[in-house]
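Lay summary

Proteins are chains of building blocks that fold into shapes. Our project writes down both the chain and a compact code for its shape. Here are two examples, one after the other.
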Amino acid sequence: MAAKLRRGHFDELARLHAREGRAREGRLLARVFCCVHRYETLFRFKGGHLSACPAAAFAALRSGFEVYREAFSSPLNRSFRSCDYFSLFYDVDRFFGSRGSFYAALPPPGSYQANPPYDANSMTRAVEHICATLDAYEHLGPKGATSFVLVLPRYFKNQRSQRRVDALLARWRRHGETMHDALFDCGFQHRPEPNVSGHDFDARGVRWISKCPIQLLWLQNAAGHRRWPPDADRVAAVVAGFSVAANMD
């Protein structure tokens, strides 16, 4: 059984492995193998696909809002320039810099991108934890400045979850944008062969366009809002980053 991935992704895993001080252990290939097959197994049994915000959107998030942390990611679909990321499988992901589950504890203050799985339970839990984090740091002043740019479907299929999420967001929501035909990277863009097929995906199965409206939400405590205000120009740059034109190879 082989683990296949693009050279660029392998090189990035090797870099992360070395950054974590693991290079001298001589187990890079075994750890890459375990990581790749763990997520391939998830893909087969879950029957869906992970997704990631495209490079142009991340570039705008970094330049406009100092976003270098991802709340929901993996060693295989993280932005190559993220400093910190949280992921599902700490036992295999920790060798490549994962900080573990986003839910394990309150993340430290800072500026985050959050793109949770698009099922009702995951989205509700993500919003609950984000709001708890913002509330915990609200009294710390500038030291507690925290911001999340949250990516969610505009409408939930489960109306009860929709009402719960809307109620939670009311306190911390500073700005929102709705996008149509938003472009995403497939979470399995590390594969050298096409990932998936269908009208939503490009020829390589690397990118897909959402058929449903997507909302971008800026959730911030008071200090986070002062430090990273979602003004019109910076928000527009992030929204444009989800367009097909901005992500042409």
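And here is the second example, written the same way.
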Amino acid sequence: MQLTVDEQLFSYRGRTRFIQYIPSKPAKYYQDRQKEQHRRLRLELADRSKIAIEELGEVPSRIPEDLAALREWIKLQPHLRVRDDDQLLIQFLRGCKYSLERAKEKIDLFYSLKSKYPQMMNATDVNDPKFREICHLSCFLPFPIPVNGNGSRIVTFRFRYPTSKFNLENVCQPGIALHELWMLTDPYACINGLDYIVDCGPATASHYMQMSPNFCKALVSYLEKSMPFRIKSIYYINTSTATQQMFKMLLPFFSEKLRKRIHIMGNKLEALHKDISPKYLPKDYGGDLATIEEINDALDKTWDTYSQYFKDNVNYGTDESLRPGKPLDIDGLFGVGGSFRKLNVD
């Protein structure tokens, strides 16, 4: 089994050295700088591994056994067509603190949602002009530096799209595709979780009218019950009084656990800065990083790199006609007041 770099635990003993550039010895300076960078990387990897062990219940020596158990279960599910990459399966285990039964539930629902809502949750052509046009609107974007430099990944969503041309399902597809990529590529999100900033400043009544009960159920199903990341906080910023009242109507769709992590902050960015330092935010939010548009420019290269990965998504999902027992009723998974009913994965 090959583990990705964030699964490897490195030990380190040594002292930090002061590095001075000596013009007559440029090669030595470069080597010293490389050593310092490698030392920092080893410490960072060890720190993430420690968090995975202490907070997520990861036991490195048991990972092969857990992966084998998941793969054996997947083979016995005639309705499931699942990617079984080590990294993806490990992330589902991490997202459930290594409870195999909960990981099975997440995997089943993750691929069921892909099949039920492909226009929103199963991107297969990231080269499609419409997909790229939505991406260029910079509605959904991760920021390059995690909280405190090595903590949770910060993500923003902005209602910055013309409702005459796109709906929320269209706009969410690139964002959900990014979540899928982070399962493979972002150890900060995988281990430390996500902080969302929802910018309501550009929103209009026509944007909110697109937030139907069915859309809200689908999105909450994805965020809370199928996505294998920890949601640390959700900050709603630039919210008018009317917007705040509207969000109170949406709160019942969220679990009690997640409702406690939601912060509706009005129009004062100072309140956001108390929780997230400006050094990790873009200029648009009073931060030190580049603007959102400048950060967004780098995403085209990401989509180019993983184009084939998303083309292969057409091969994965569920066939409800083959599911043992009754077909999954996703709409019926929600009980009274948005509470979530357990999914049978025996």
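What can we say about the second shape? The longest helix spans residues 26-56.
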